[in-house]
Every structure is written in C-alpha cells, then in structure tokens.
C-alpha cells in the first residue's frame, strides 16, 4: 500500500497532509511510534513514524534535523499529533519537508497514536485481502481461457481488459504474436521497435542493453517516451523460464497509470503465456523434426520401404502418382551472414518470401509445389503431371525457375539467387533429382554459365565425359586437342579459347560470332587465323572441329573437378 492510499482512507476523519506531497507515492510497510529522538535508531525505510512531537515542540533546529534524518533513513512519512505539544510547525520545516518529498501528516487531536496504528494495519490487511482475492480472480479468469482451449490472443485481450491499457506480446526474437489495442503506429516508437519489411518488430538488441550479458532478462524495464504532447511510460516484462526467453509483454500506460493489481495481472498472464509458448514450441519442434527427418531421408534416398515412403509422402503433401522434379534455389549472399538478431530475422524473411513466391507462381501453373529450407538453400519439389517428354519437362521447369527469380527480385533486387534443376522421377527415386539439382547449381559459374537457372540436361556432355571415370584419358584427349591454345591464352593474356567456342556455337557464322563477342568482323578473322596457326588446322574438317569442341568441354570439366587445367 502506498502512503497516498492510506491518507485518502483517513481524509474524512480530519487527517491533513501539511507538506511533502510529492512523496505520497511511497510504499508503506509498517508504522513506528516515538516520543524520544533516540528511537530513530530503530526506524526502518518505508515506515511511517507517529509522534506527539514533545521532544521538538519549541525548537526549529531540532525539527529541521529530525526531518532530515528521517529522509536519510528513507522513512515513508511522519504523523504528528495536533495541538498536543506542537500547535504549529515552523514554516522552514514545512519547506524542507517539501524539498525532501517527506510527507508530514497532521493527526486530529481526538485520535491517539495507537488508534492511527490500528487504522493503518486494518487498512493494510483489507487491501492485502482485496489484492489476494483479486489476484485469485484474475488467475481464475486466465486459467478458464486456457481450460476451454483459448489462445495467447485471448489471454492478451483479457489482460488488456484487466489493466485498461494496450498490450503487446512478442516471441523471443521480437516478432509480434498477439496484440490488444496496440494497432496505432504512434505507439511503435523508434527506440523500442524496428520496421522489417513493413512489419514492426521489438528491438531486442535495445532491450538487452538493460541486462548483463551473462544473465537472463527477468526484471521489468520502464522506458519513457513522448508521444505527441504526452509523456508515456512503456513497461516491458520478459517472459522467461529458468533457462530460456520465450518473449516479451509490452504495456504503454496510455489510458491510466498502472497500480499494484495491474502488475499482479501481468505476472499471472506472463506465467500462463510462458507455459503456452513452451507447449507450442514443443509441438512445433516435434512436427518440424518429423517433417525434416522425412525430407532429409527422402533426398538422401534412405527410406527403405516404398510403401512407408508413399504413406509419409502423402502426409507431407507429395502425391505418389506423380513424378517430381527437384529445384534447388540458392541465396548466394546468405553464406557469410554472422547471425545477429537483424540478420537472423532477415534470413528467415528472405526464405519465407522465396517460398511464398514459389507457391504463388506454382498456383498460377495449377500445381502444388512442396518447399523446404536447408542452410542457404530452398528446395522445391515440383509435380510433373502432363508430360513424359524430357525436353518439354526441362523447358517447363526452366521457365518456372525464371518466373520465380523474376518475381522474387521485384522485392529483393539486390540479392543473388541461382536455381539448379534435376530431372523428373517418381518419389521413390527423388533423391536422384535432388543430387542432379545440387550438381547443376554447383556447375553454375564454374563453367562460366551466364544464366541463373540451369537444368541437369544443360550439362549433359560434361556428365557423359565425367562418367568415364578415367581422368587420365580425359587429360590425354585435352592435351592432344586444345592444350596448345589454352597455354597460348595463359601466356599472352588472350581469349582465343572463348573465341573458338563462340565460333562453334554460332555454327561458323562469322557475322553472328563477331556480334556475339561485340568485336569487329576483321578482329574475329585475325583471331581465327591465329587459332588456325596454333592448332595447325583450317577449321574445315568436321571431325577435327568435334575434337576441338570436346577438348574445350574436357578442359572445363578438369577445372571443375580438379581445380586447375592440366
């Protein structure tokens, strides 16, 4: 109970506050009585001291020193019996009490000090009883919500009703999970909240500044900010178990200042919300682990029973009747992210938005694509319903991939994303499609592929060459075909290998090849003459030209798998 509440209960009985009104908000723990100044030795912080004032009745200095000593002790206030020995306190004493915010209460003559003590303890008992009853009622109201299967949103609504102020509940990362009358954006002050992709998130990095690095944040934080022309106190209470943070409750004192019962209500709600969060996490974690284990075993080909695989596949959205093509989408920029809150939240947001984009594009194609995340990858399983032609499937998947990247980059145009695609297989062989998609993603860049979306079939010649398993034979073929030209390029910093490759791609069309390389036709003629001289060829022999083309592919293959040309 604070002193103001006690004074209000005594006002009708003639008790008057003479000075120190700024200190009326102090909490009062007990009452002490004294007639001898030596009693100050036993006065405790938070006590009201009752006295007749006999020992200081005619001495201003004693009165001043007495007031100052009480203030130093931390007393809640002083009650002085009226007209017994002191008819009037000195003006200087009252001014000092105002400066020290030490309330001085005048006790009417008809009340003894024992009467005042009895009234105080009676009032304290009644308030404590009322608090316990209300605390029990609040706890029962919250528990009833839980028993009937209510959500954290319902608990937040009820808490907001009890304390008559807006309430916001976030998870441990600051993401808002429930909201009661906190919709007005003016409450999202920049010190406490950050805007991530047009959604407000509690700035947990700012909150952590109030706590030591090696401790869980348990105590409530009071943060004062100005909203419009009004000073508003924000109360932030961590939702914490013994070992883990589960979130935060944020209450701005918009409608009224909170009282003790409000804090009790917040504590009661906090315990129940914590238990609900722990339950939700346990359920979500179990579901997540089961789903993760299935897809991990699926893409690794570790599910031994085809029947078991098909049953689990249907549980997680895959249709055993269809073939699926695996698409691996890699966010290149995520590998080096260190992992502070903002970056972790950004990674989650990027992956979520990428999956949403896949779903939106798939919906337009009237297919049900299933997506999962692994590290910096999003892995999508795309059903193939209407075609058995490998070229048609390849073209459909590449177009789908390009549409996904185009749509995603509308929002995140500064991110580098590539897509590798595997061939279509039945679910029992889906691990093959995943490996092909990963291999395709690996080949992007290493073979100087200019595209962002590649299919396993795009590198078929490399797969065939590599499938021989005889690296020495490949090296020998490279040495006898194209090595001299590669060495000339390296020694003279030229690009004759690239020139020859583009010349072959353009089927010997000089104008098209020159245009493709953005060079003059005469420059191309000069380069081709140099190539003919080095390779001792006229580039007219079809068999020789095939050997040179294979040599270029083998050179790239050896670089990819050995890290250097041989």
From TrEMBL:
Domain CdaR GGDEF-like: 302-438
Pfam families according to UniProt: GGDEF_2, HTH_30, PucR
Name recorded for this polypeptide: PucR family transcriptional regulator ligand-binding domain-containing protein
Lineage summary: Bacteria, Bacillati, Bacillota, Clostridia, Eubacteriales
Domain Purine catabolism PurC-like, first and last residues per copy: 14-121
Domain PucR C-terminal helix-turn-helix, chain residue ranges per copy: 496-553
Source organism of this protein record: Clostridium mobile
């Amino acid at each position: 109970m604070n002193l103001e509440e006690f004074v209000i209960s005594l006002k009708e009985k003639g008790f008057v506050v003479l000075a120190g009104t700024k200190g009326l908000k102090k909490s009062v723990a007990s009452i002490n009585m004294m007639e001898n100044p030596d009693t100050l030795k036993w006065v405790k912080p938070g006590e009201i001291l009752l006295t007749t004032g006999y020992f200081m009745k005619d001495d201003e200095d004693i009165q001043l020193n007495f007031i100052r000593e009480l203030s130093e002790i931390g007393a809640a206030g002083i009650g002085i019996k009226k007209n017994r020995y002191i008819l009037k306190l000195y003006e200087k004493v009252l001014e000092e009490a105002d400066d020290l915010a030490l309330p001085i209460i005048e006790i009417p003559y008809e009340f003894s000090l024992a009467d005042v003590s009895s009234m105080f303890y009676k009032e304290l008992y009644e308030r404590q009883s009322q608090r316990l009853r209300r605390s029990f009622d609040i706890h029962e109201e919250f528990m009833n919500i839980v028993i009937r299967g209510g959500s954290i949103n319902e608990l937040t609504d009820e808490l907001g009703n009890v304390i008559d102020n807006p309430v916001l509940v976030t998870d441990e990362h600051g993401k808002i999970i429930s909201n009661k009358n906190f919709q007005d954006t003016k409450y999202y002050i920049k010190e406490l909240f950050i805007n991530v992709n047009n959604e407000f998130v509690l700035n947990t990095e700012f909150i952590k500044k109030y706590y030591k690095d090696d401790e869980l944040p348990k105590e409530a934080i009071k943060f004062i900010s100005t909203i419009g022309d009004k000073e508003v106190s924000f109360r932030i209470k961590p939702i914490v178990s013994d070992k883990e943070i589960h979130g935060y409750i944020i209450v701005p004192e918009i409608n009224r200042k909170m009282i003790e019962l409000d804090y009790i209500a917040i504590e009661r709600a906090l315990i129940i919300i914590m238990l609900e969060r722990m339950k939700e996490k346990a359920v979500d974690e179990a579901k997540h682990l089961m789903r993760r284990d299935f897809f991990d075993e699926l893409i690794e080909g570790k599910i031994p029973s085809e029947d078991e695989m098909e049953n689990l596949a249907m549980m997680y959205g895959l249709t055993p009747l269809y073939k699926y093509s695996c698409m691996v989408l890699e966010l290149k920029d995520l590998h080096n992210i260190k992992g502070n809150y903002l970056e972790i939240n950004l990674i989650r947001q990027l992956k979520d938005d990428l999956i949403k984009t896949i779903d939106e594009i798939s919906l337009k194609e009237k297919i049900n694509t299933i997506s999962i995340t692994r590290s910096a990858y999003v892995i999508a399983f795309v059903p193939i319903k209407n075609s058995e032609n490998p070229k048609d499937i390849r073209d459909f998947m590449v177009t789908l991939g390009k549409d996904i990247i185009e749509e995603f980059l509308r929002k995140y145009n500064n991110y580098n994303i590539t897509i590798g695609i595997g061939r279509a297989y039945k679910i029992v062989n889906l691990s093959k499609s995943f490996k092909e998609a990963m291999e395709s993603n690996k080949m992007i860049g290493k073979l100087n592929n200019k595209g962002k979306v590649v299919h396993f079939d795009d590198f078929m010649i490399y797969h065939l060459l590599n499938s021989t398993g005889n690296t020495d034979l490949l090296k020998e073929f490279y040495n006898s075909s194209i090595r001299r030209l590669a060495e000339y390029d390296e020694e003279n910093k030229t690009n004759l290998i690239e020139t020859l490759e583009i010349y072959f791609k353009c089927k010997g069309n000089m104008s098209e090849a020159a245009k493709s390389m953005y060079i003059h036709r005469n420059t191309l003629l000069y380069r081709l003459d140099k190539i003919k001289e080095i390779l001792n060829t006229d580039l007219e022999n079809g068999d020789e030209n095939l050997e040179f083309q294979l040599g270029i592919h083998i050179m790239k293959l050896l670089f990819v798998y050995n890290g250097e040309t041989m």
